[in-house]
Amino acid sequence: MIYFIGGTKFREFKYFEILNKLREKNPNISESFFDAELKEDENFLEKLMTNSIFSSQELVVLKRAQKIKKFETFLKNIANLDIINKQIIIDYEKEDGKLNAELKKVLDKLEKDKKIKNFLFLKDEDIEIQNYVMLELKINKKNASSLLEMIGTNPFKVKNEIEKIKIFLDGEKFDLKKLKNIISIEKEYKIYEITKEILSNRINEVMKYLEQTKEYMGVLYSLYNELEVLYKIKILKKEGKQFSSNYNTFKIQFEKVKEAFKINNRIPNSYAIFKKLELEKNYSLESLKKLVYRSWEIENSIKTGKIEMSAGVERLIMQISSLYKIDCIIK
């Protein structure tokens, strides 16, 4: 059987899944890997054309098939070979998820003729990676999303972290707090945690973190973004919009206002906005308006050399602290 796996980075989870299933089904299967980027496509073809009725099962993998010129012809030639005792995986990366019309036509025809199985990932959707985590760790969607926030969505890193978690848990119940000590947390998530600490008025450890890492601009951009979201929530509340503390109810409410949170033509996950409700209540509308403007002002001053990064960000943090829970109830 020929398995064609093509599209965005999330295709790699299907690649791992098929690879593992074939290995489980055939524990003694011999494996051969070829890389089209290293001009090994000819070696790959030679391997496929070498047949023996006495040979055991073989796994033959071609990586980075997108590097092959006239790939459609190449694929049709493979599909027409008389292949015995071989399982073939062709991995075709397309970062933007857009396959050309000719290739899609060839894939459809070959699948219709039962010469190939296609697995296409044409949209960069988090749902694929989320499903993989849920399946592997047997956890719910909420826990999977929280874990991915911490470790990021790079397929190879996720796979490695999942294996590490399985070994650590050794059959025990999933506990995200315990896992923080053994997983490799993404820098972006650490900045997110630091931002949350600032907005919760817990700034002692924040200053130590900034002194050690010098992530002043990362924290500034994160604060700017968070404050804008909190400001939008506060404005919507002032306009009479209701936001429940129950997530299932909030999801329904969010559908009516989600356009207000769109950034770069993308609407954020409803749970990400839901988690900000606990922070928004600690600041008044006027305070958030001041802080959003102040964030922009400090960013501009740093970029134009009017102020040092460290001084600017530290001043913003102190101003946020000074406005924490000051006249924050909307009547």
UniProtKB/TrEMBL annotation:
Superkingdom, natural source: Bacteria
PANTHER family linked: DNA POLYMERASE III SUBUNIT DELTA
Gene3D superfamilies: 1.20.272.10
Sections of the chain in a coiled coil: none
Species for this entry: Leptotrichia rugosa
Single Gene Ontology BP annotation: DNA-templated DNA replication
InterPro entries linked to this entry: DNA_pol3_delta-like_C, DNA_polIII_delta
UniProt entry keywords in alphabetical sequence: DNA replication, DNA-directed DNA polymerase, Nucleotidyltransferase, Transferase
Name under which the protein is recorded: DNA polymerase III subunit delta
GO molecular function per UniProt: DNA binding; DNA-directed DNA polymerase activity
Keyword Nucleotidyltransferase recorded: yes
Annotated GO CC locations: DNA polymerase III complex
DNA polymerase III delta subunit-like C-terminal domain segment(s): 189-320
Keyword Glycoprotein appears in the UniProt entry: no
